[in-house]
Amino acid sequence: MRYHQPPVYTAENECQDCSKCVRHCPVKAIKVADGQARIGPEKCVACGTCVRVCPAKAKRVRDDLDEVKQLLRQPKKVFVSIAPSYVSEFPDVSTSKMIAALRRLGFAGVSETALGAQEVSAKVVRELNEGRKKLLLSSACPAAVTYVQK
Ligand code: SF4
Ligand code: SF4
User: Fold this and answer.
1) Is 146 left (phi over 0), alpha (psi -120 to 50) or beta?
2) Residue of the nearest CA to atom 1 in ligand 1?
3) Could you read off the pLDDT of 38-85 as tens digits, one per residue?
4) Between 20 and 30 A from 54 (CA), which of 12, 45, 47, 147?
5) Nearest ligand, CA 42
């Protein structure tokens, strides 16, 4: 399993040392050392900006496909939570077809990641109704939450 690896990484052989990612990283997590633009995992919030701007496609998002296949081979139920944004990747696939396809792949059930965002919103509402004066973050965006944590 490679879950300990950060979600965004550099394919160092592909880096052309142009520093574009360094300039665009919103949290200054990338430093050039030995001709390589390296991501500091202690600062990176996995926003994906560097992946989008790198002209050499050297910044990449970790691919967990093999890990998922391994999970599905195990004799336990595996559930999948998909983000509502999946439609941007599969614009011609209806929700029912997507659920059926995931079930055929072996997932025991399919849920929507937005349910987590709903829980966050409900918690914020409860906190607001209690009227306590404290700073609240209502965003469920992982990059925003990670930014605050770090
Ligand atoms: S933008 Fe890409 S090619 Fe340029 S320094 Fe960053 S990783 Fe290397
Ligand atoms: S994913 Fe975002 S925060 Fe992380 S190194 Fe790239 S631009 Fe910076």
Assistant:
1) alpha
2) 54
3) 999 999 999 999 999 999 999 999 999 999 999 999 999 999 999 888
4) 147
5) 2
Ligand 1, CB within 6 Å, residue ranges? 10, 15-21, 37, 54, 56, 58-59
Strands 30-33 and 36-39: antiparallel
| pLDDT, tens digit, 9 for 90 and up, residues 93-145 | 999 999 999 999 999 999 998 888 888 889 888 988 998 777 888 887 889 98
Please tell me the distance from the alpha carbon of residue 20 to that of residue 29, in angstroms, as a whole number.
13
Ligand 2 pocket member 44 (CB < 6 A): yes
Distance CA 72, CA 67 (A): 9
User: Tokens 């990283």 map to which residue?
Assistant: 25
- Report the predicted TM-score, pTM, of the whole model to 2 decimal places: 0.79
Which domains are assigned to the chain?
Answer: 8-61 (3.30.70.20), 65-112 (no CATH), 115-149 (no CATH)
Please state, as a whole number, how many other Cβ atoms lie within 10 Å of the Cβ of residue 54: 21
Q: Give me ligand 1 centre to Cα 89, in Å.
A: 25
